[in-house]
Amino acid sequence: MADKRSRVNWRGYLPAIVTPFSDDGALDPQRLGTYLEWLLAAGMHGLVIGGTTGEWTSLSPAERRDLFSMVGAQMKGRLPIIAGCTSFTPHESIDLARHARDCGFDGILLTPPPYVRPSEEELFRFYKSVSDANVLPVCVYNWPPGTGIDMPPELLARIAVLDGVVALKQSTGRLDLFVKTFFMLRETVRIFGFAMDEHGLTLLNGAGGDGTMGAGGVLGRDQPDFYNHLWAGNLDAARACGAKDRMILDQWYTPDLVGRFGSGPAVLKAAFDVLGMPLGGVRAPLIDVDAHGRAQVEATLRQIGKL
């Protein structure tokens, strides 16, 4: 199984980026291009495109493909790029994966189909269908807040042995399940989802692990530097970077990673706007952060030293 892990070079901090829109709500290639170059210059170890943070739920099928085309044209070969291909059916996910492959993407990120709450056997067959299509390496995403399903470690172990599955983003809200999953599967697939706190640092330093697929990359270099310092053996510097990431998580999100004063995409877009990089608003049914929420975002960024 070790060779499955070696098929990809994904590790470190890979932000799930927001999708920039113009003032009239359309995809904005110029804002996207500026944002991508900023993320690259900040040292991100890879990017996740068109996921939950990227508002895939409000993008049309054509827009999802256009987004992959724009990102692939600019970023292919410059760092790992992973396409969010969550859909209601395996057929839709496979079609999106094929387009992502043609655009130069390195893999796909795939949650369980949302809303319908499939059984464990249905979930296994869903992932098997995508794996068997052999389009791109698959990162399975366990995302209970968005799907209503917290896949148990035993099911994840069944899915992890599928040949096309090379990674797992484990976003369960339970630390015990995260740790159990990590020790069960760390030799089989790459494991993402480590908190950049003392728990995460202890696990990563003592037992290994691959990285974090975080939200937006809003703190710039501090987030990938958590891993850069860890790999260099400078745990105090890693701890300092991680403390900044934990501050935004604690102040902006609930323990279940739901925004405290707006949706995740809305909070991150407000943060980038405060930082001087306007990426547009969010699309309905989401709404932009109000003045009170924006003030809280600004206060956190000022406390961290970003303003």
Commentary on this structure:
InterPro entries: Aldolase_TIM (IPR013785), DapA-like (IPR002220). By secondary structure, this protein is of the alpha/beta class. It is 48% helix and 9% strand. The protein has helices spanning 2-5, 29-41, 61-75, 90-102, 120-133, 144-147, 153-160, 175-185, 198-207, 222-232, 235-252, 264-274, 291-304; strands at 12-13, 47-49, 81-84, 107-110, 138-142, 165-170, 190-192, 211-212. Strand 2 (47-49), helix 3 (61-75) and strand 3 (81-84) form a beta-alpha-beta unit. The protein is globular, with a radius of gyration of 18 Å. The model has no long low-confidence stretch (mean pLDDT 96).
